[in-house]
Write a structure and sequence with these properties.
Shape: globular
Bound molecules: adenosine-5'-diphosphate, magnesium ion
Number of strands: 18
Strand content: 5-15%
Number of helices: 26
Distance between the termini: 29 Å
CATH architecture of the largest domain: 2-Layer Sandwich
Oligomer: single chain
CATH superfamily of the largest domain: Glutamine synthetase/guanido kinase, catalytic domain
């Protein structure tokens, strides 16, 4: 009796994987072979402000930094000088090409390379790079999503250099390319990317925070930058497993597959010793990242088997956003060299933890003289600092409370739907976790009347200044919160692992900027009415604490009770992406973005449409992949096994002995019946989707009916996986992908 080939292939894969050696690379070294310290080669592949300062004439550099900080235009002379010096530097490093590197609304990065090659007037070949080539480029933009902002007859879009993020050399096999971080805008100035909105939101936040600081008496402050430290979670799967799983190849997650008998229940993977082959991968990634000036700091195993995390030292949000894109890109590339596939999907495997990208957020004073570098969410040592801390804390909470639906929209993707609300990830309800100590203080302040001003002063003086240690020790208690205070920053834990950080952070900055504006206006009104600044600020803190009570939650975010409680409090609970995304086109959101100068109405709507469309496309790819796998892999394997059982049973019967196969045969037959039914259900939902009028209706059906239908089909197939002889099964199993 011939068996399926599945098992033979899987055994080959096991043998190949077991024979793999960790990949060794040449570490950066000096001429004598002495290994370089990280600090000796950190940033060698970047051309940022530090290098510009070295290479550019003093006045040019001064004009450049002024333009950057004031958001002003970079004039021709400056551009020409920068272009010249970056070209010389790049050529000396063996670079042949340059590209504007940008982040269109596809969620990925885009680049179009041009050689430095040119001819001079006499017809000689030269290397050439002009100021205008540095500043602007016109890729044929018509194939990037614009959500209707650019009709094809006017497909022009252009990329423009973002001087706030360092240029860098991307090393490939046989080639080096100078990448110029850029924004991508339509001919009419509409943002077509993830970066423009982010930069505008940083501007809005800086403006509002600076005004508030001025009101509070910190008059020297000129700018405030939002900071971001993005912890990146990911899975590594051997290439042999990956390429044998059509679902992983097509969708990044397993659409089928029975959980192994051992998942993560032993809790032995988290922070465990890192496997040698994985560590070799991690350190190669880090070596490359250090060259690119990406400050990677932490690496460790995550909770699920084969899951890991890497985290940088935080930076200004726009640089951190570019860096996170570089991190993901490099991890993907380097993983291949180690025969791994790096999975950034939020839920590659059912039944074990998914991956997130915890976005740590705070605000930092820059250009503020003696206050330079101060963290606005750091409880301070002086009463003034603590007052300031509480004012900003309340402002953040106000923003998050008022725009929680928008924040949920900012993290809504098909992948994150499988993670949010699952047993290890934050729920889809956006709430704020402060920790016991801070809650006590904030609640006491909010309680109002019986807490006199002097009592409040004491609390600000005593309680909060002790806070950092206390809160930091408790970071593990907030695993279930989507937005948790962790001592001197907020951790936005609900962001998905595959998401570019720009989108979610733009929304967060907008919400916080609004909170700050409100707080500032309230304080100013009270000052106008004759109160002292401190007294006014205290009152506003108190009112804000009371007002934001509903959004604060310290309990278990996974519990049923919280769902009910949140509903009572009127907090939105958008379980699916289409529901969540609808908040984007809400008047409230559109007006917010307009007010803050981040997006015009068209820009918001285009994002809504693009995201919805992508949701639909991703789901349809999943459905089609699942159908194909069931029809061409699962069913044939089951039929083969079924036949072998029935032939065995027939033979037994003919021999006049009992046929023990019959029991399994019956079970397999029953489950095959179920698969048949569920397979049909999929088709009928698909027909419904095809007939539905418009994207919104389609997305709704996909979320409400297709996702459960796919799950039901999967469950039946997974039952069969447990029944069908191992040698017949054509797909790598969970135990193999996660443990071999
Ligand atoms: P944990 O796992 O406890 O959350 P990690 O060390 O893994 O802590 O990650 C914390 C992240 O927060 C790091 O990327 C760190 O740089 C970042 N971070 C620390 N302070 C700030 C800040 N003020 N603003 C933004 N991010 C910060
Ligand atoms: Mg962490």
């Amino acid at each position: 009796m011939s068996t399926g080939v599945g098992n033979a292939q899987r055994l080959d894969a096991v043998r190949a994987i077991n024979a793999r050696m960790p990949r060794k690379i040449e570490l950066p070294a000096d001429e004598s072979g002495r290994p370089l310290k990280t600090s000796e080669y950190y940033g060698i592949n970047t051309f940022g402000l530090v290098r510009m300062k070295e290479k550019l004439p003093k006045d040019i550099f001064a004009r450049l930094t002024t333009a950057i900080h004031s958001g002003g235009k970079i004039d021709r002379e400056v551009a020409t000088a920068v272009a010249h010096s970056v070209k010389e530097w790049a050529l000396s490093q063996g670079v042949t090409h340059f590209c504007h590197w940008f982040q269109p609304l596809t969620g990925a990065t885009a680049e179009k390379h041009d050689a430095f090659l040119s001819f001079d007037d006499a017809g000689h070949v030269i290397e050439h790079f002009s100021g205008s080539q540095l500043i602007q480029s016109e890729p044929d933009a018509s194939s990037f999503p614009s959500g209707g902002m650019r009709t094809t007859f006017e497909a022009r879009g252009y990329t423009a250099w973002d001087p706030t993020s360092p240029m860098f050399i991307m090393e490939g096999v046989n080639t080096k390319t100078l990448c110029i971080p850029s924004v991508f805008i339509s001919y009419h100035g509409h943002s077509l990317d993830e970066k423009t909105g982010l930069l505008r939101s940083m501007e809005a936040l800086s403006k509002s925070a600076t005004e508030l600081l001025h009101t509070l008496g910190d008059k020297d402050v000129k700018r405030v930058v939002p900071t971001l430290g993005a912890e990146q979670e990911y899975f590594l799967v051997d290439r042999n497993w990956f390429s044998a799983r059509p679902d992983l190849v097509m969708t990044g997650r397993t659409l089928l597959g029975r959980g192994p008998s051992r998942g993560q229940q032993l809790e032995d993977h988290y922070f465990g010793s890192i496997p040698t082959r994985v560590l070799a991968f991690m350190s190669e990634v880090e070596t490359e990242l250090f060259k690119l000036g990406v400050p990677i700091k932490t690496r460790h195993n995550e909770v699920a088997p084969s899951q890991f995390e890497t985290a940088p030292i935080f930076e200004e949000a726009n640089v951190a956003t570019d860096h996170n894109q570089i991190v993901m890109e490099l991890m993907r590339k380097v993983a291949l060299r180690h025969n791994y596939q790096c999975l950034f999907h939020e839920k590659p495997f059912a039944g074990i933890n998914g991956s997130g990208k915890h976005c740590n957020f705070s605000m930092q004073i820059t250009g503020g003289g003696s206050l330079d570098g101060e963290n606005l969410l750091e409880p301070g040592k002086t009463p003034h600092q603590n007052l300031r801390f509480l004012v900003f804390l309340v402002a953040v909470m106000k923003g998050v409370y008022k725009h929680s639906a928008l924040l949920r929209a900012g993290i809504a993707t098909h992948g994150n739907d499988h993670r949010l609300g699952a047993n290890e990830a934050p729920p889809a309800i956006i709430s704020v976790f402060l920790g016991e100590e801070l809650t006590r203080i904030v609640s006491a302040l909010g309680a109002g009347k019986d807490v006199g001003e002097s009592a409040e002063r004491v609390m600000i003086h005593m309680g909060v200044s002790k806070l950092p240690e206390v809160a930091k020790d408790n970071t593990d208690r907030n695993r279930t919160s989507p937005f948790a205070f962790t001592g001197n920053k907020f951790e936005f834990r609900a962001v998905g692992s595959s998401a570019p950080t720009g989108f979610a952070m733009t929304f967060l900055h907008a919400a916080v900027a609004e909170g700050i504006l409100e707080v500032n206006a309230a304080i100013q009104a009270k000052v106008k009415a004759g109160k002292s600044v401190d007294a006014a600020a205290l009152e506003v803190i108190r009112e804000g604490s009371k007002e934001t009570e509903p959004v604060r939650f310290e309990g278990n975010g996974y519990s049923e009770d919280w769902q009910k409680e949140a509903a009572k409090r009127g907090l939105p609970n958008h379980r699916t992406s289409p529901d969540a995304m609808a908040a984007l086109k809400d008047r409230k959101s559109i007006e917010l973005f307009k007010r803050l100068g981040i997006f015009g109405e068209e820009e918001v709507m285009s994002r809504y449409h693009i995201r919805l469309e992508r949701y639909i496309k991703h789901l349809l790819i999943e459905v089609n992949s699942l159908r194909e796998m069931v029809d061409t892999l699962v069913l044939p394997a089951c039929f083969l096994y079924h036949r072998s059982l029935s032939e065995g049973a027939a033979a037994a019967k003919a021999a006049g002995v009992s046929a023990p196969q019959l029991h399994t045969l019956k079970l397999v037959g029953e489950w095959l019946g179920t698969v048949g039914e569920k397979r049909k259900d999929l088709d009928s939902v698909l027909t419904k989707v095809e007939k539905a009028g418009g994207e919104e209706a389609q997305a709704k059906i996909l979320a409400a009916e297709m996702v459960p239908a796919m799950l039901a089909l999967r469950e039946a197939c997974d039952e069969l996986e447990a029944l069908v002889g191992d040698e017949y099964w054509p797909l790598p199993k969970y135990r193999e992908m996660l443990f071999v």
